[in-house]
C-alpha cells in the first residue's frame, strides 16, 4: 500500500493505528533526567533519541506533546529551557517497568525517580540527578532547542560533558552492551531487548 501522511488518526494510512513508529524501529530510548528551578527532579523516556556527533560528542531527543502545567511542552523541555542541562540515562531490559512507570503524565512537582522506585545520584559536571546503577549516563549541556513543524514538537540538542559507565559493562577495554541487554522501542506499545550482536567490517577498513 501507499499513503500520504495527514493529521488524521492513522496519519492518512486508513489503518487503525499510525504505522510510522512501527516502520522506524528499533529506536534507542533516552531516559532523560532534568531538574526544575525549584529543585524538583524529573525523569522521562523518549524514543525519538540518538547520538548525532563524535567530536565533541553530541546527542538529541525530541518531545512531541504538552501538558497543562507546562504550556507548549512537557517537563523535560521546560526544565532544560530554564537550566540549560540534562542527563541521558541508558535503559536496560531489567529497568523496563521503572522506565514505563516514569512515562506517566504527572504534575510537574512529582519526582518520577520516587514514583518509579529508583535511586538517584548527582551528576558530576551539571546540576542534575541521574539514575543510580544505570549501565551508562551522559551528562549534557544544552546547545540548541529547535522548534519543529507541528504542534508541540521540539528537538533538543546537547553536548556531552561527562560520561558514566557501570564498571561491569566494561570488558577488555570496551563498553560491552551484551553485559546488560539494552531496551529499544518498537511501534505501538511494543519494545525489544537487544541480545543478538554481530560484527561487520567496512570494506575500506580491511
Care to describe what's here?
- This protein is mainly beta.
- It has one domain (28-187): Electron Transport, Fmn-binding Protein, Chain A (Pnp Oxidase, Chain A), CATH 2.30.110.
- Helices cover 11% and strands 34% of the residues.
- The strands form four sheets. It has a seven-stranded antiparallel sheet with strand order 3-2-6-9-10-5-4, with helices on one face.
- The longest helix is centred in the middle third of the chain and has 9 residues, at 75-83.
- It is globular, with a radius of gyration of 18 Å.
- The termini are far apart.
- The model has no long low-confidence stretch (mean pLDDT 95).
The biggest sheet, with number of strands, parallel, antiparallel or mixed sense and barrel status, is: 7 strands, antiparallel
Strand order of the largest sheet: 3-2-6-9-10-5-4
Report strand %: 25-35%
Structural class: mainly beta
CATH class: Mainly Beta
The total strand number stands at: 14
**Could you say what the CATH architecture is?**
Roll
What is the global morphology? globular
CATH superfamily: Electron Transport, Fmn-binding Protein, Chain A
- Please mark out the parts with pLDDT under 50 across 5 or more consecutive residues, or reply none: none
Order of helices and strands: HEEEEEHEHHEEEEEEEE
Number of helices: 4
Radius of gyration: 18 Å
What is the CA-CA span between the terminal residues?
41 Å
Per the CATH scheme, the topology name is Pnp Oxidase, Chain A
Amino acid at each position: 500500500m501507499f499513503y500520504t501522511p495527514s493529521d488524521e488518526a492513522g496519519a492518512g494510512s486508513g489503518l487503525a493505528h499510525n504505522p510510522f513508529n512501527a516502520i522506524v524501529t528499533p529506536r534507542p530510548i533516552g531516559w532523560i533526567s532534568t531538574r526544575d528551578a525549584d529543585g524538583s527532579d524529573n525523569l522521562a523516556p523518549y524514543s525519538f533519541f540518538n547520538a548525532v556527533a563524535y567530536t565533541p560528542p553530541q546527542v538529541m531527543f525530541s518531545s512531541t506533546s504538552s501538558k497543562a502545567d507546562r504550556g507548549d511542552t512537557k517537563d523535560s523541555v521546560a526544565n532544560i529551557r530554564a537550566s540549560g542541562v540534562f542527563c541521558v540515562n541508558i535503559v536496560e531490559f531489567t529497568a523496563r517497568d521503572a522506565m514505563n512507570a516514569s512515562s506517566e503524565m504527572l504534575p510537574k512537582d512529582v519526582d518520577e525517580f520516587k514514583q518509579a522506585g529508583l535511586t538517584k545520584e548527582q551528576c558530576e559536571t551539571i546540576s542534575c540527578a541521574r539514575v543510580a546503577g544505570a549501565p551508562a549516563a551522559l551528562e549534557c549541556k544544552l546547545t540548541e532547542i529547535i522548534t519543529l513543524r507541528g504542534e508541540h514538537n521540539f528537538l533538543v540538542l546537547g553536548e556531552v560533558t561527562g560520561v558514566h559507565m557501570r564498571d561491569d559493562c566494561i570488558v577488555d577495554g570496551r563498553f560491552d552492551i551484551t553485559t546488560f541487554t539494552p531496551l529499544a522501542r518498537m511501534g505501538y506499545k511494543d519494545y525489544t531487548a537487544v541480545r543478538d550482536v554481530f560484527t561487520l567490517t567496512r570494506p575500506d577498513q580491511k
